[in-house]
Amino acid sequence: MRFLKRWKIRILLFFAVVGPGFITANVYNDANGIVTYSQAGAQFGYKLLWTMIPVTLALIVVQEISARMGAVTGKGLSDLIREEFGFRITFFMMLAILFINFGNILGEFAGIAGSLELFSVSRYISVPVCAVIVWLMVVKGQYKSVEKIFLVASFIYITYVFAGILAKPDWIKAVIHTVKPPGRELFQHDYLFMT
């Protein structure tokens, strides 16, 4: 019995540490990302797989540096930018982030509308209902409860593994393109734009 209790504690500690990272890793699997991935796959097949390695490494570095800067200084991004570059640059950077996030939110709600229309739910119902749910989570939700909701929702992405297997890809070709960038194609306009 003590053995099972120890394992239960270890599993809970594992998810306490990995949970936020698992959620953050799935942030880029949003409606906008899935559309981009689908277009890239349809146009280039496996030829963009090699970008996963450098992009993953870059994301790890950025997330780690951001977390450390926030933990050490106790300040947010805008405070750190303002200290280093002044108010004017901070204002324009925050304005740019505001517009980028607004565009991203529009894409998310377009994805919600499009996906629920597959199940005959009108966009005039799905978008406002989902907007209210998001608003309630942000305004009324507590960090721990919202984190649990996101953690459970993140497990939905495990279905990608099964979808990938059921698609019956050419595994040898996929492995080769994961470690080997293309030759001349790398410098073509469409390829560079999608990368």
Molecular structure report:
By secondary structure, this protein is an all-alpha fold. It has a domain at 1-72 and 143-181. Helices cover 78% and strands 0% of the residues. It has helices at 2-25, 31-44, 52-73, 77-85, 87-117, 123-139, 143-154, 159-166, 171-179, 189-194. Helix 1 crosses helix 7 (143-154). The protein is globular, with a radius of gyration of 21 Å. It starts with a helix and ends with a helix.
Could you give a short description of this structure?
Helices cover 78% and strands 0% of the residues.
Order of helices and strands: HHHHHHHHHH
Total number of helices: 10
Low-confidence stretches: none
- Measured as a percent range, the helix fraction is over 70%
Overall geometric form: globular
Oligomer: single chain
Q: What's the gyration radius in Å? A: 21 Å
Strand runs, count: 0
Strand content: under 5%
SS-based class: mainly alpha
Provide the residue-averaged pLDDT. Answer: 84
Largest sheet: none
Give the distance, in angstroms, between the N- and C-terminal Cα atoms: 53 Å
Helix and strand topology:
Elements: H1 2-25, H2 31-44, H3 52-73, H4 77-85, H5 87-117, H6 123-139, H7 143-154, H8 159-166, H9 171-179, H10 189-194
Helix pairs in contact: 1-7, 4-5, 5-6
